[in-house]
Amino acid sequence: MKELLWLIPAWPLAGALILILGGHRMSRTLATLVGAGSVGLSALITLLIGFAFLSAPEPFDQHLWTWMAIGNFQPSFAFHLDALSMIFLFVITFVGFLIHIYSSEFMAGDEGFARFFAYLNLFVCSMLILVLADNLLLLYLGWEGVGLCSYLLIGFWYQEEKNGYAARKAFIVTRVGDTAMAIGLFILFQTFGTLHIQSLLQQAPQAWSVGDQTALLVGFLLLGGAVGKSAQLPLQTWLPDAMAGPSPVSALIHAATMVTAGVYLIARTHVIFELAPQAQLAVGIVGAVTLLLAGFSALTQNDLKRVLAYSTISQIGYMFLALGVGAWSAAIFHFMIHAFFKALLFLGAGAIILVLHHEHDMFKMGGLRHKLPVIYGTFLIGAASLAAIPLVTGGFYSKDQILWLAWAGERGNVLLYLAALFGAFITSVYTFRMVFVTFFGAEHSHVSHPVGKAMLTPLVVLAVLSTLAGFLELPHTLGHVTIFSDFLSPVLPAVNVRPDAESMELLFQVIAAVVALSGVGLAYYLYVLKPDLPSKIKEEIPGLHHLWFVGWGFDALYDTLLVRPFVYIAKVNKHDVLDKFYTGLVTVAEFFHRALAYTQSGMMRWYVMGIVIGAILMLTIGLIL
Amino acid sequence: MILPALIIFLLAGGILAWSAEKINASYPKWIALAVLAIYLVVMGSLWSAENTTALTGGSWKVHFMKPWIPQFGVSFHLALDGLSLLMLLLTFFLGMAAVLISWKEIQNRVGFFYFNMLWVLAGISGVFLAMDLFLFYFFWEMMLIPMYFLIGIWGHENRRYAAYKFFIFTQASGLLMLLAVLGMYFVHGATAGEYTFDYFAWLGTPLSTQTGRWLMLGFLAAFIVKLPVVPFHSWLPDAHAEAPTAGSVILAGLLLKTGAYGLIRFVVPLFPEASHYFAPVLMGLGVLGILYGAILAFAQTDIKRLVAYTSVSHMGFVMLGVFAFNEVAMKGVVMQMITHGISTGALFILAGVLYERIHTRDINHMGGFWPQVPFMGTMGLVFAMASLGLPGLGNFVAEILTLLGAWQANHTLTILATVGLVAATAYSLRIVQKIFLGKPEHHYTLPDLSGREKLILVPLVVAIVWLGLFPQAVMQQVDQPAKAGTAQTQVTTSGLLVNQHVKGGEHDPK
């Protein structure tokens, strides 16, 4: 059964090719059938392989063909299936399939219907290659492939100039990170002569001792790639703008899958980070700082999708934090739960925006819980998971694990813990601010049409998943289920809890629960009980509010430091200053040409005078010498 | 006999095309197309030929030698190995594309146009085959004159200026090479006692440090102007922008590659010591080209100038890779020569296709074309992605291998070159944005690609994807181990470098 592995990325690729080549001649039904069907088939095969994998959980390698062969350096089109890639496969194909279904209704009125599905299929294929690749070069192919699709889909409505700008920004900013990653690959190749991931992971501990300088450098460079793709500090600026794309795109690419590629990369190469403790600590710090900064920004946004975008940055910050303290499995667990609930929230938001005539500002919504009950219900479940409402949500279990290990893990650290805890409070405030403003209070706008089944069904399924999936991993104090971490344990080592901390777990859970609930309480107080208060607070601190609103001014900073100087230099030098040298030569030559031609006047007097002066000069020189 | 026949029939085809114009104006293009198609097939049949002829420095699939001016040691010496074969296939493949793209564009003096085109291609083929330096110089100059006519007669508004500039730059640098060729002739003659222009005789000639360096610089001058390397690049944007589409395709796709070929075939093997000595500077110039070309490309508003500067940028990788002296980088360079020829050729073809429809090259007068020309847009997207080095397309293989290899030689320069990839993203996306995306503010009626245009572009897309996914087939061509035993065991063409590199001795970059 595992031999069918190659089909998982092949189906969406075939779908993309069919839609690119023949999409314009297809009916919408047929295009949907190809687009969603191909991903559905992948999901089905993933399921089959998943069962086979559960019964025989040893890694499986599939070699398709040798990409290039230079001596012993032979990167291939070859896949490596293990528990880590299995989980990513599940999330990508299933969430991907649900989002394809949703899109068939969401995009129904769009003239680029087939093109949309073509890009979406291509994305799924690239993402699958990314997580299946057995060598870093093929991973890089998937990595850049998802970047391309992200670019194409952010700029899907290409007639708007600002969409194109957002798309290019996303591509270029992530490419900055990719450059760092590429240099990391150069070093790995020079050191080990291979880019095969499993070989690297085996050889690295032999070649490097803990704290080795090269390992450290590689760690930081890989982190560079990860922060670009996963929109972490300092390369997070592209993600909020990426919301210019259609909502299903935000759900699939900019919440559930692509933006977590950085998490995957670090988890995949965790051996290197274990050998480079400073780099790993940097991962944790990046995560902690990002989750706070993005959380504050999320508090101030009015655009429903931008709240979710900042929230995504913040939640991936949690995953980075988990990676930074060596809680590998907790990071992946949070990735999975986050994929479910964040996709759910984006799809819900998309549905709302669609039926409100593309209104994004949530302060112009209000009172939607009566008009859109299903969306309200599922959105509430997603929001509860995001805010980590205790016991009943998946998000609680996944985030609680990170909070706990940030403090109690061997590499835990009280500062990281406090950042995460404070972040959890902010999360629940901005999440329920969003819920209350959108669904409660007075109605400000008119719902144009009911939402159909193709859009509602994925919401319901995701709501169920984001709740139930949490029970795959329960803490000691609450049932002690470790299905998820056991599944991952052959790939990712378990984190050890400091012995002195073990007894405190319940206390920390109560703290986390109280923090989450008090955040909801604060949001209720501010946006339901005293709806005038927030704007007063805003007037009290206009500077800070603005700073948060614009995402801490990173855009302006990069604009001043990098973008404008580059554009300026390019503009000034449009005509290539080096060419001036050659045109200068021509000018000099022409000058002498003209000067000498001028002496050839045809007038006898001038010639005679010339001869006389010349003769006198010669004689004088002759006499002097 | 296949090698001299190749060149002779190209020349004869040119004359035939010119004279056939008198009978019917549409004959010349058919003749040109047929000649090139035949040769594409003939060369293709050599694909799996084994390297049977062993000569110093490598082994060769096909070899031909006849004395030409025996008094001076000049012979008509041609040889074909994997590298030459790849270059010739590229020549005929792009040559056919160039003929097809001129099908309607060229209405004036048609016969003479195709005559020039075939003669340029004959010169290029000669350059890729000549193993006698006198003959090499002869072909090198032979490329120049027909190209001068192609630009000067059928070009755009400023064609005279561009043609002169092209001619003077190439000619001046070519003369330096001639001096170096003659210098080498006498130096080799004095030491070996036998005066000859033969490449294989020249290999391994002991040279004093100073002589070697001066002679190398002479050769280098011709090749780095042709490649081009900043700061000798400024003929290129003018020539590329002003040439007719076919001219731009041949210039970018093939003429630039003769410079790269010269570096690989002549500069490094003949002057290993000097090459190692100058390597850091030359790699540095390569990186300068990558970055400087990219910044210039970003600023351009003339689509053809833009693409021209991207060539400057991409050819920087050739310098970086050749002087990194290792096999990985070398393979990257060979891939770069081929993939850049295809992707940039395709971008010039798209520029030509657009020009035929809207009669401007100014991207500020374009925008929002996608809904009208989705097929063309898709093509544009593919080649823009190739140009920014998207994995899955051939250019990625070329650039990543070059960088992986260059890293072993010089870290700082490789980092800077890698930064160039970000700049490449900026200008490539700008192409797509400015032409195809945005609001359609200028009211043109644009028909999408015609059947003939698809016939040109679709094979180019297939080729670039194929090279991206299965580059091994091509790269194998340059590392078939020698079948017949030579003094050096396991000599490979790219191993040519590796062996010479051993001779470079203490300059080992590792």
From TrEMBL, chain A:
Domain NADH:quinone oxidoreductase/Mrp antiporter transmembrane span(s) in chain numbering: 133-427
InterPro entries tied to this protein: NADHpl_OxRdtase_5_subgr, ND/Mrp_TM, NU5C-like, Proton_antipo_N
Top-level taxon in the UniProt lineage: Bacteria
Residue ranges annotated for the NADH-Ubiquinone oxidoreductase (complex I) chain 5 N-terminal domain, each copy included: 67-117
Membrane topology annotation: Multi-pass membrane protein
Primary residence: membrane
Keyword annotations from UniProtKB, A to Z: Membrane, Transmembrane, Transmembrane helix
Residue ranges of the TM segments: 6-23, 30-57, 77-101, 113-132, 138-158, 179-201, 207-228, 249-267, 279-300, 307-329, 335-356, 376-397, 417-442, 454-472, 507-527, 604-624
One Pfam family per UniProt: Proton_antipo_M
Subcellular location as annotated: Endomembrane system; Membrane
Protein name listed in UniProt: NADH-quinone oxidoreductase subunit L
Gene name as annotated: nuoL
UniProtKB/TrEMBL annotation, chain B:
Keywords for this protein: Membrane, Oxidoreductase, Transmembrane, Transmembrane helix
Signal peptide region: none
Topology term for the membrane: Multi-pass membrane protein
NADH:quinone oxidoreductase/Mrp antiporter transmembrane domain segment(s): 130-420
InterPro entries membership: NADH_Q_OxRdtase_chainM/4, NADH_UbQ_OxRdtase, ND/Mrp_TM
Location within or outside the cell: Endomembrane system; Membrane
A GO MF label: oxidoreductase activity
Segments crossing the lipid bilayer: 27-48, 85-103, 110-128, 134-154, 166-187, 214-236, 248-271, 277-299, 306-325, 337-355, 375-393, 413-432, 455-474
Record carries keyword Transmembrane: yes
Enzyme Commission number, as recorded: 1.6.5.11
Family: Belongs to the complex I subunit 4 family.
The protein's name in its UniProt record: NADH-quinone oxidoreductase subunit M
Organism in which the protein naturally occurs: Chryseolinea lacunae
